[in-house]
């Protein structure tokens, strides 16, 4: 019974940041719509305009937040998993050359371009699978996540291939929401602050609403700008801190195909869907075009259109390097002291400013 209770408590704690954000948004709705627009604003026309602009922004903000929270993380295909007996034999083998030969055979037909620092395919001892390109193991979710960016406590979910677009839109619409609320309440904030007019609770809600929206808006500027930069460079947060390793060595820009193609890889080809929190990212999350290898040769989902810079976007690509080495000797920031994948410190620092 004790382990079950402990797990329930841990799950409750994990949801605390989401509950906090939801509570802040619910209170801001009451403060803005009821206390400001209904009780404070005198002009009917102004009330209507403020509310007509407010609700679409709130809707897009909450829709993208919902999608980020509840979209399941991308799972590694079965092709990459080792049979239990094979995994046991691989991990128990003490001869490194034998391990190399085993991984050489296991990864021969798998579409992997990235390597460990020693130059061999990456292997996850936790999941017993070869890791696809840009895939990493999350110690919080206890699974390998496709194109993992980071584990975000504010959404209680991993941000990766399946929901990265939603996460970026969530940051953008949250920033827009904060700035809209701050700008539209500025006049009443100044009036209450300088003159002291207004009833106690009404005055408190509007003053606090302005302060909260400004502080959250300022904290979101750096985070949203940073992720726009990552989109333009076609990097995940993990890759920005440690470059992926290709056959030619580490290269932070290895997956960059130019700004236009990088943007489309995340947001899709159809401009009408760019700003809607609906999945439109290109590819399957298993393999990605790179500057070194833009050719399709491993296709399970059909080909996709060409994107920018004259580079054909592949569904999956096959690596020509058949060398192998058990990646536990070169674990890349997963499990342990260097575990950045579950460390959202950069995110927490930004949010702490609020």
Automatic annotation (TrEMBL):
It comes from the Eukaryota. The keyword Thylakoid does not apply. GO terms for cellular component: membrane. Residues 120-241 form the Palmitoyltransferase DHHC domain. The keyword Disulfide bond does not apply. It is found in: Membrane. One of its GO terms (molecular function) is protein-cysteine S-palmitoyltransferase activity. InterPro entries: Palmitoyltrfase_DHHC, PFA4/ZDH16/20/ERF2-like. It catalyses: L-cysteinyl-[protein] + hexadecanoyl-CoA = S-hexadecanoyl-L-cysteinyl-[protein] + CoA. It is an enzyme of class 2 (transferase). Its main location: membrane. Its EC number is 2.3.1.225. It is a multi-pass membrane protein. Keywords: Acyltransferase, Membrane, Transferase, Transmembrane, Transmembrane helix. Pfam families: DHHC (PF01529). The chain crosses the membrane at residues 15-41, 48-66, 164-183, 204-229. The DHHC domain is required for palmitoyltransferase activity. Belongs to the DHHC palmitoyltransferase family. This is Palmitoyltransferase.
